[in-house]
Amino acid sequence: FTSTELTKAWLERIKAEDSKYNSYITVTEEEALAQAKAADEAFAAGTAGPFTGLPIAHKDLFCTQGVRTSCASKMLDNFISPYDGTMVAKFKQAGAVMLGKTNMDEFAMGGSNESSYYGPARNPWDTDRVPGGSSGGSGAAVAARLAPAATGSDTGGSIRQPAALCGITGLKPTYGRVSRYGMVAFASSLDQIGPMAHTAEDCALMLNVMAGFDPMDSTSVDREVPDYTVTLNEPLTGLKIGLPKEYFTDTLDPQVAKKVRNAVAEFEKMGATVKEVSLPRTELSIPAYYIIAPAEASSNLSRFDGVRYGYRCEDPKDLEDMYKRSRGEGFGEEVKRRIMVGTYALCAGYYDAYYNKAQQIRRLIQQDFAKVLEEVDVIMAPTTPHPAFKLGEKNNDPVSMYMEDIYTLSLNLAGLPGMSVPCGLVNGLPVGLQIIGDHFAEAKLLNVAHQFQ
Ligand code: GLN
């Protein structure tokens, strides 16, 4: 069948089903059908590439020309980007068809999708539960078969955690592997873009399109992009796996621990060896991250002032009133909390006590990983301490929500790549195995994940 037929089928599924999951903020029917038509023409002309005509959904913090990019915020409810971000442009050039923009936590701040201005996305396995966040819409859309694949961003787990809770595969690449140009910044030293799909193979195909140096992002790394699909089938004999003992403590649901250990046993059967390792500062990743991320966010979000774009309050009295009310009315609770924490941490007088300390911890966490990764090829761990929790369960208790990030944050602080792959069900809900590797070891991670699937 044609790409147009395929695209229509996906759009119809979204129309029929998404009221249950709220996984999309915007469905781009017109654009999708135009791109599908172009794809059909490319097939007819013999110029189709590996992504031509394949539908995909983008998280709603990636700028898409002519299409609203809301960041799930009232602040950007009316924002139509004048340009495509690099990752979006690369998929366009590769011939992919954009189905729409997916739901998320407001400005990617959260782990449950409940901070979205458009209401939470829901977990397709149990719609009373959260899909995770912040890329919860991408996770839910892929899990509910409302998109074959989607993009996400991961500042402190926002690809891996929803992938785990929705039972799909997600990859957070090494910091700098994918250009962030045209991604609305949350915490620039932690943000990374990556693929979310059913399999490692699909993630590899997507990373082939996404990865690479971009002069528009000075932190993107100028390093060759391998074909991530060619090493997927390499045997795992002799693979050295490390299990960090700090990830298997009381915080971890014993049933989740069991699924992770069963998964590790499968790798042993494939010829891998396993040993216990130690990442002693794991616990410190939460306080360090929740200083650094809000600090950077408070700076990044200062651009939303009601002047240049986005929400502006009605009838401002003067400039000051406009700033205050535009920001006060445009941002939600969690975003305001982060801006306040971040601004405080960066204040003269408190800077050394909080921000500098957090940066020192960050360095120690990096060193811990570097030491362990000299001894093992990959680290395996749970992605989350529990399966998906109920909507509303943690929403009024930010600290308990932050605690759920215990296994994902430290990778972002260290800039390392990590994947989450489904490793079974606990009480009918999916849980994820996290696979962590050294900088630029994406091909290895995808290989390991593929052998498991
Ligand atoms: N849950 C984390 C937070 O709230 C991670 C967010 C993210 O990775 N974008 O900050």
From TrEMBL:
Gene Ontology biological process terms from the UniProt entry: translation
Q: What is its EC number?
A: 6.3.5.7
Q: Which family does it belong to?
A: Belongs to the amidase family. GatA subfamily.
- The name this protein goes by in its record: Glutamyl-tRNA(Gln) amidotransferase subunit A
Question: In what residue span(s) does the Amidase domain sit?
Answer: 5-446
Question: Which PROSITE patterns does the record associate with it?
Answer: AMIDASES (PS00571)
Q: What class of enzyme is it?
A: ligase
Q: Which UniProt keywords apply?
A: ATP-binding, Ligase, Nucleotide-binding, Protein biosynthesis, Transferase
Record organism: Marinobacterium lutimaris
